TrEMBL record:
The lineage of its organism: Bacteria, Pseudomonadati, Pseudomonadota, Gammaproteobacteria, Vibrionales. Belongs to the peptidase M48 family. Transmembrane segments: none annotated. It comes from Photobacterium sanguinicancri. Its cofactor is Zn(2+). Residues 62-246 form the Peptidase M48 domain. This is Zn-dependent protease.
Length: 263
């Protein structure tokens, strides 16, 4: 009886969390958000400060100015957001082909990316995409799912503890959680950020067709080592390029002057 009581109470808690956290993303996708924007901004700021202490910050003023120029053009189209006053941009001296944006307006770009994003429009593709994660509150969504999954595992453990379920069954449950809930930025979120970022860069005056060129560069740089799409947090390069081409075709014409950011 105690096991069923734990399961019932856990189910009621989970249902309450779901009802209190229902929301919609900028593209209309249903989300579960359990944390406030101020909470997320605080977490993002704290993580960014730790990262700045751990990673080597570039001393190349020209690269910093270049990345700042592209970022400023895009964030000018975002407007004010709850939890912070302005975006902070840091260039990290690393061969990583990567960039990120955190809640609280924190943006990091690794110098390795500048070798693959070969012009301002391609860099704008990446920065717009990362800002898209922030605007769509993907970190909140991921943490919310993680919290609910953790509660679910405890509930399941109480329900099946001492039964005939084997370690293999529990491992199977863990695999399901890993690839179904806890994957950092699932493919739906990545595709959504592509759409948001594409619109932002186009509004800022950058060439959206260069997003396709960027991902062709990414595919070339990866050397064919991308994992299978089913087990990847990102869509395959081919899928991403096809989706971008479709989105580009539906973009309205923008009359914004083209930014002039040079490295």
């Amino acid at each position: 009886m105690r096991q069923y009581t734990h399961l019932l109470l856990g189910g009621l808690v989970a249902s309450s969390m779901l009802l209190s956290g229902c929301s919609s993303s900028p593209t209309g996708r249903q989300q579960m958000l359990l944390f406030s924007e101020n909470d997320m901004s605080q977490m993002g700021a704290q993580s960014f400060e730790q990262l700045k202490q751990q990673e080597k910050i570039s001393t190349d003023a020209k690269k910093q100015q270049y990345v700042q120029c592209v970022t400023d053009a895009i964030t000018a189209k975002v407007g004010p957001l709850e939890g912070f006053d302005k975006w902070e941009v840091v260039v990290f001296d690393s061969d990583q082909v990567n960039a990120f944006a955190l809640p609280g307006g924190k943006i990091g770009v690794y110098t390795g990316l500048l070798k693959v994003a070969t012009n301002q429009d391609q860099l704008a593709t990446v920065i717009g995409h990362e800002i898209g994660h922030v605007l769509a509150q993907h970190s909140n969504e991921r943490l919310s799912r993680s919290q609910l999954a953790d509660a679910g595992l405890k509930i399941t453990g109480a329900a099946i503890g001492g039964s005939q379920y084997s370690n293999a069954a529990m491992a199977g449950l863990g695999l399901g959680v890993q690839y179904g809930i806890l994957m950092p930025y699932g493919r739906a979120q990545e595709s959504e950020s592509d759409i948001i970022g594409l619109k932002l860069m186009a509004e800022a005056g950058f060439d959206p067709t260069q997003s396709v060129a960027l991902w062709k560069n990414m595919a070339k740089a990866s050397g064919g080592n991308q994992p299978p799409e089913l087990l990847s947090t990102h869509p395959s390069h081919d899928t991403r390029i096809d989706d971008l081409n479709e989105s580009i075709a539906s973009l309205p014409a923008y009359n914004q002057p083209k930014p002039s950011c040079e490295l």
